[in-house]
Amino acid sequence: MSDARKTQRMHTPPFRVGIGYDVHALVPGRPCVIGGVVIPAPFGLKGHSDADVLAHAITDAVLGAAALGDIGALFPDDDPRWQGADSIMLLTEAWRRVAASGWQLANLDAVVIGERPKILPYVATMKARLAAALDCLPEQIQIKGKTHEKLGALGRGEGIAAHAVVLLWQMP
Ligand code: MG
After folding, report:
1. Ligand 1 centre and the CA of 74: distance in Å?
2. What is the pLDDT of residue 78?
3. Strand order, beta sheet including 104-113
4. Best exposed site among 60, 65, 68, 172 by fewest CB in 10 Å?
5. What's the angle, vertex CA 115, arms to CA 112 and CA 119, rounded to 5?
6. pLDDT digit string (tens) for 65-88?
7. Angle between the N-to-C axes of helices 87-100 and 123-134, in degrees from 0 to 180, rounded to the nearest 10
8. Measured in angstroms, how far is the CA atom of residue 22 from the centroid of ligand 1?
9. Cα of 90 from ligand 1 centre, angstroms
């Protein structure tokens, strides 16, 4: 490594931010899994795995912050191993790789966007499940539910989207 490169690395701050986004269609007859919690509903999210839209956005955010690829590269959706997969397990495996690179979670902030179902009654359980997967405290996680104000496909209740932002840190 050149001296310039070494100096550059020395001065890289011990923080990394990551962003994740996902969207899944709502269909009848599927379990509605969001943030690792099965929400009782007559409809659920369509996808190859359990289609946990929030867990997927968070997985991309932590992988992105650590520059370790993305969920599609790690767990391809044409691979039969991930059919019906518990997305919390996928997040746990992604986090294992991120942590192995020396990163710890500072905080996670996420938004779940859709007209239905209402997620507020389930947020505390989601935080507990996600904190276990990310080896952090539930207090480091914030999850907000928003409607799409009846606008577009999300506003018609055809699907649910999620955005996630994480900050990772490591000892300098
Ligand atoms: Mg997804």
Report:
1. 13
2. 84
3. 43-45, 15-28, 159-169, 104-113, 141-146
4. 172
5. 50
6. 999 999 999 988 888 888 888 999
7. 40
8. 5
9. 11
Share of the chain above pLDDT 70, in %: 99
The letter for the amino acid at 154 is L
Q: What is the pTM of this model?
A: 0.94
Mapping DSSP to helix (H, G, I), strand (E, B) and coil, where does residue 60 land?
A: helix
102 Rama sector, left if φ>0, alpha if ψ -120 to 50, beta otherwise: left
Angle at 157 between CA 151 and CA 160, to 5 degrees: 95
53-65 helix and 87-100 helix, angle to the nearest 10 degrees: 10
Tokens 């409607």 identify what position? 147
pLDDT value of position 16: 97
Q: Which two tokens stand for residue 85?
A: 């997969």
Distance from C-alpha of 52 to C-alpha of 36, rounded to nearest angstrom: 7
